[in-house]
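We keep the chain:
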Amino acid sequence: MNSENSDRLVHSPGGGLPRLLEIMRRLRDPETGCPWDVEQTYASIAPYTIEEAYEVADAIERGDMSELRDELGDLLLQVVYYAQMADEESRFDFHDIAEGIAEKMLNRHPHVFGDEGNGKSSEQQTRDWERIKAAERLEKNVKGTLAGVAIGLPALTRAVKLQKRAARVGFDWPTTDQVLDKITEECREVVEAREALGPDELEEEIGDLLFVMANFARHLRVDPEKALRRANAKFTGRFEAIEKKLAHYGRKPAQSSLEEMDALWNIIKAEEKAAQR
């Protein structure tokens, strides 16, 4: 694309995806682009991608559709960034990415785009999805039951994915009672580690306990990552309410006592329950 056409496109509201792709190409131009953008690599951009994905989830959690639109734009920019870098190296481009995911969606939804009927339940379709994914991994010569579970996932999410993979080949507790027994065992080992072992061993035992708690959540069909985010939000809201109540008396948490703040916590908790009735 010549300079005149490029300028026309990048300054054209409504230019959509082609406009964004051209803006990124210009930003990455080694001679006329932005020095910061030119210096970036796949590895340097990856943390931003993770951050943007979390910000998308945060906007959804808060029900802020205006912010969600903006955050989705930021997340899309990450994909465009990787595509431009890969195009510069003659590996692939944005079109290849879009075509790849389109073909994947066709292959994984034969009940919509193929000859299969659409009378299956959501649960059956999920099982079919996993079966198709397993076949795709075989085609790619991905070996090992746990191979391909991304290391960069949040730890709780990765724990559940690892457990699901193992469960497919029968390595799973059949009842939640057995998981609860394991939680009791791991709690006991944490106490023993606290009293007799060093920090490294204690960290290992805490990790084991968190892993089995994630497994318990999986058995109850609860997303532990979502559950913990919800608990974080609840804690944040209640603690901020404590700060407001203390501020009414001209004090801050550091000027209060644990007993007073705990009493305020219980009051706030009771107020929340009353409001829910």
